[in-house]
Amino acid sequence: MKIKSILVSQPRPETEKSPYFDLAKKYNLKIDFRPFVQVDGISNKEFRKTRVDICSHTAILFNSRTSVDHFFRICEELKIAVKDTWKYFCISESIAFYLQKYVVYRKRKIFFGNGTFDDLMETIKKYSDEKFLVPLSDVHKQEIPDKLTKANIAFNKAILYQTVSADVTDLKDVNYDIIVFFSPAGVASLLQNFPDFAQNETCIGAFGPATAKAVKNHNLRLDFEAPVPEAPSITAAIELFVKARNK
What we know:
With 247 residues, this protein is an alpha/beta fold. It folds into two domains: 5-36 and 166-245, 3-Layer(aba) Sandwich (Rossmann fold); 40-161, Rossmann fold, CATH 3.40.50.10090. It is 33% helix and 23% strand. The strands form two sheets. A six-stranded mixed beta sheet has the order 3-8-7-4-5-6. The chain has a five-stranded parallel beta sheet with strand order 2-1-9-10-11, with helices on both faces. Helix 1 packs parallel to helix 9 and helix 7 packs parallel to helix 8 (209-217). It is elongated, with a radius of gyration of 21 Å.
């Protein structure tokens, strides 16, 4: 079966320079974008039950723009004044710049890494006397808490948002040759929206080992994945698969 249509379970790229559009043009593909999951904020009532005292912390550690948005949202809802003395530690420079949405950048102590937590940890260790607050999703990797604990850094997790299945039931009568997933939650969403889903000839691609494992755990056939040595990105993996199928 030749590949003609692909559903990417993520939002449409904001720029037309995305490699997805290059693929569509190069191989005459129909590529649609639709997130299978959405992020909902934890209510301030639910957050209060955790008994996490935001004001008792001196530094905030952000691993995504979403964590930034929900930290300042909960502060506003709980009428917590944003302290001038708070230090902000961000996984990447882009997340650090995103803070400008909420604080005057040049007047704050903001630190950032190169996109990996290991890099940021080198800076965090220089501020080991700080008490860190780590805004996270209800489902999160243990890398950050584990490495902070190992380095004897004082911190508390703040669960401020949760990943839930999006309603994509309108796609029931729309068939794609490939569906690409980016998280275990996305795979679960497919089966929640379509309990009777039968894969048949539909090909499934996965980005990341956890996503690939989730596909298999749900008894679905995994046709390709990334990153792998020959395809470090999901678009590279898609291209290899399409080229092989469309010979």
